[in-house]
Write a structure and sequence with these properties.
It contains 20 helices and ten strands. With 534 residues, the protein is an alpha/beta fold. Strands 4-3-7-1-8-9-2-10 form an eight-stranded mixed sheet, with helices on both faces. It is globular and about 85 Å long.
Length: 534
Amino acid sequence: MALALLLGGLASFALEGLLRPRVAAPWRRPTAALLVHLGSWCLLHAAFLAVLQRPWFASAFILSLQLVVIQTSLTKWRSLKEPFLYQDFDYFLDAVRHPRLYLPFFGLWLATGAMLAGAVAIAAFLWLEPWLFTRLTPGEGLLALVLEGLVGAALLMAGLRRLPPVTLVPTQDLSPLGLYAFLWSYGRQARRPLDSRLSPPEFRQPATAPDPEALPDVVVVQSESFFDPRRWSDHVHPDMLSHWDRLSTGSLAHGPLRVPAWGANTVRTEAAFLTGLGPGELGNHRFNPYHQLARQPMPNLLASARRLGYRTVALHPWPASFYLRDRVLPALGIDHFLDISDFDPADRDGQYIGDAALARRVGSLLDDRDNAPLFLFVITMENHGPLHLETPGEADARRLSPACQAAAHQAHYRDLQVYLRHLANADRMLDDLSRRLAESPRDGLLCWYGDHVPILDQAYQRLGEPDGMTDYLIWSTRHDTALGPPPVEREVSRLAVELLGWIHAHAERNALAPAGVHHFEKNATPSRHTQEQE
């Protein structure tokens, strides 16, 4: 029993050598980090030994689970530039519920092989290793388990009390602490509540509700993996986003958007936009903010819109329970949530519900409503990976630059062409929404932004990586407000506050305008010359 505990503990240190970014050797770590590792190992071994009652099987089982975490961390590191976090344990359950979102990144053969190897190992240990109580009396076995647990608890508590503070930059914290102390440090940070006083004052102050007739309809679109790839590479056709270019010219604001996510973790960008809280204010909750917001709603854009008199609706063609949205969004101020159950399987484009179907649903909501202004928060899904599960068609090559179309068959262009196909559909959705808003008798505001850049590992290896920023646009149907300032970089946490400012500006202008005069030719996009004159 002691030998299984000792050798298993040494193996747990050895397995950490597989991690990326690399972790420091055990003798180079703080003493507190070593105590946390050893204490955790002893507690885990005692717990599994109590259940399995076979010392070597308990050690092997814990090491297997550690290897799963390490392999998950390596996969995440390759695609998302971030190691496995304490908050990521929830994704194991999500992987069972939504395997298409996760398992393809590990590889089907690796996942299948790991499950088969685990089944064979379990059968072998149960068959070959004797039961603990064939060699010990029940009293002796219980005493050994209690002693092992007490030693582990003492080591763990001693280490936790002296752990150095973390920076909350995972790539910097993992290396000096090692896996066990790193996970414990982030887990303890996750228990701290958010401070509502950190919310932007625009969300905390009681809003003066204007005349509902003066408020514009607002459509906010968080577009899956949307960014302007022409900023990243000249291998993309320059006419790729023609509707985006047209609307940007006459927009209230547009430009690069700094977001707190790369390749995935949409909820980080989403929470930052809705609450106006950046990573500094969110602290450790920056990694999965909805865990805390499900228990502790914060002042936010949705609640502010509802106080102004808006009917708030969320549309997301995926199960509402994902990321706890079915609990969080209503708590933040959503009146009605339409999820994948409100769409038809025929609405799919590729693996998911298409942007065209979402645009149609937004249009029907704008048409079929009472006199209250609408605030629609739309979260698209079409361009969600894994992109390598789709095959590019012959027409997709035309979205590459003319010089690259002849080489479209090369591997690093494969996923890129699939991405560009769905990006073109997002561009058409943008056009559809702007036209539907322009045709409405009520003024309209359209806010569009990307949640993160896509996962295109092969393209990035060959063509270089983007800067990680997405793009945003705030566009109005009012001719007189479309002054089109030059592109400017924004933080996603400030974008919501600025959108609230534009809503107030619209209401004030409509309240001051003579009756019947405040609607202009909404389909017209002013030329650059006209903007300069204004």
